[in-house]
Amino acid sequence: MAVLQTIRDSVNTLRRSVEYASVLANQESLKEAVPYSTMADDQTIRTKDGMFLTVIKINGFCHQTADQGQIDQMAAIRNTLLKALNDSRFAVYSHIIRRRIEPHSGGTISQGFAQILEERYMASLRDKRMYVNDLYLTVIRRKFQGKVGVASSLFERLSGGGRASQAADRQACEELRRRVANIVKALAPYGADVLKCVLRDGTVYSETLEFLAQLLNGAKPVPMVLPRMPLDTALSSRRVSFGQRAFEIRGAVAADTRYGAVLSIREYPNYTTAGFLDGLLKVPGEFIVSQSFSIMDRTPALEEIGRVGRLIEKSDDRGTTVEDAIRFARDEISSQRSVLGEHHMTVTPLADTVKEMEACVEGVVQEIQRTGMIVVREDFNLQPAFWSQLPCNFRDIARRAMISSTNFCHMASFHNFASGRASGNHWGPAVTLLQSTSLTPYYFNFHRDKVGSFTINGMTGSGKTALMSFLIAQSLRIRPTPKCAFFDKDQGAEIFIRALGGRYEVLSPGVPSGFNPLQLAGTADDVSFLRNLLRFCVRPRGRATDLTAEQDRIIDDAVEQIFRVPLEERRFEEVRHLLRGGERASEDDLASRFEIWCTERGWLFNNPKDHWSDANGIIGFDMTKVLDDPDIRTAALGYIFHRIEGMLDGDPMMLFIDEGWKLLNDDKFSGFVNDKLKTIRKLNGIVGIGTQSARDFAKARDAHTILEQTPTNIFFPDLKADEESYLEFFRLSREEFRWIRETPKENRQFLIKHGLDSVVATLDLSSMPDMIKVLSGDINTVDECTDLRARLGDAPEAWLPEFCGWSGSTFGRPA
């Protein structure tokens, strides 16, 4: 037995030795495959064979709703940049790293219903797949290629060897830095930044190495401290095992293991267009798209075109589109409209399981085949195809083709989807996280710079009210917690306002409103407001004349006296007595004109107690039933606006107006909104206005003020959209207008225009009918809520569970 145990131990030791040797061999092959040597400076890497590279991170151009003319123009600009590189000393790599992310939102929401909504909503996003597209452009400076390169190397050796080589390296680095600076400047509309060394928590990290590590790590982000060891050693931290048609990247723990395959282009299409490969940006999976373009010197390029042309003349392709393409390429190069270069492209689908990886392969293949390309899955060439993803690994490129810089710019479009900003906004964290139609995240914010006012356009049933309510609930993560005043129509937001613990007033003729402006505190602003309110109530009817100077004095005296009366005794009836004692009685004296505000219209202000309460910070008003009475509407708005002015104390404040088209044409309301749109940002406030159609804004009295002061505009689909309102007033692109008019409203999608961002997002709450029931009410749900509150009490925790059908200990939260 002892002998057998000794044999087993020896075998196990031998097996471990073989496995360890295999790991060491793998690490050695990794080091050999990684071409990088040292950092030449904080943004430049030197390769083992003397090339230099710098990486540019690009946010991308929001192409989804851009007009084709603009897309073509942007492609032409990129082509000009490539032409400026000019010779074979330069090459570029383009990368798209599409990776899955775990959705997260910043800040904390503590209010009951809003907290439940946040938990349910974020859980629903986590159940879905969400991705980001990271775009990179690597610029490479190397020695001349071909015959020119041989002559250049010979001249360098004859000119002094080592010292000449060092001088040439310094010159190459300086030139690369200049060229990169020019490229970054030209790509400013895309959002371009050079990757470099950065200081984080007292430690120096290399953003460039972090990008390269992602290529070797299956798209997973890896923090890379600036190493002291050679770069090939620092980057070779994972084991890559290659099979016949797939590979495995093994990490320190099983959860870090990734599987992938490599797809290459076997045949190219007859032509390309700008945004040629944009469909890949929507594939539901993780992958890396790598493209290289090695610029050829003009003379060798023309010689190669001539050689191919002569072969075609002797072949069956003579007189076909192939010959036309060669003729066109010769003309492009001769006229310097393009430069020629060697191109290669691979797509590397990645996943945590083989099954998911194969599904991603299928999705990528289908998308590439739609372009007319013929794609092949690498087997014998799998290993070199994988290494060819690394910039400067030209020796590992197995499948390459000559294309023009125009073709390359069509294929490497640097198009992307807007992502917004997750933190560091005017109010701190993003208001909410939305999912775009490309499965990418969009961090929504009200503010662009310091201006946060916005508009929402949506037909009845589009989801406009639900979105407005949702944004209010999500904004409660801001600190200090924002206050909110909501002008509602048809009580659509009543249930939501009450669910937040806010106060909601329905202004209905004959029903006491609970307003009594005479019971204000009596500040200078209160006195001024009350004087103006009384002047409005007793203004002459049917005549162009204003109040007389004597009548103005009587009103001023009445206001002064009313504030001497104990607060609980201040009634509009008391004002009538004060007015009557100030002038001779007649059918048209001030007291007679004021009579109606104590009787027929007494329900509005002639109340024993002022029940205004904004202690919770959230208050809503429904003015649907008084919109057609201009006197009541203007007087009520005057009081409400004065109260809202008192809420503007420098803490975040939101003024939301749903179905605001009729209110926008009221003198009082229009004047207030016009003023607040211009000044509310100084008091840390925003205004959000919703209407059924962009036409309502375009025809509003202060249309241009609204447009100038609302940098964020949200549009739901509108089958009746007109060009004048959308194209001329809101200045949308033709593609944006087409989307608005052709997209079914049932899709629950909407277009967000936020500065340069243009993104189609969705708010999918279909799995949460109880939440929708609260966010947007109708006559039936409002009646149900009213009955429950009458029976159970006004506190949300009393009536909300039964209203939403919640049961058990979860209280509406995800189980």
UniProtKB/TrEMBL annotation:
Q: Which UniProt keywords apply?
A: ATP-binding, Nucleotide-binding, Plasmid
Q: Can you tell which superkingdom this protein's organism belongs to?
A: Bacteria
All copies of domain CagE TrbE VirB component of type IV transporter system central, residue ranges: 199-398
Q: Which molecular-function annotations from GO does this UniProt entry contain? A: ATP binding
Family membership noted in the UniProt record: Belongs to the TrbE/VirB4 family.
Protein name, as recorded: Type IV secretion protein VirB4
**InterPro entries to which the protein is assigned, alphabetical:** CagE_TrbE_VirB, CagE_TrbE_VirB_cntrl_dom, P-loop_NTPase, T4SS_component
A Pfam family that the UniProt record links to this protein: CagE_TrbE_VirB
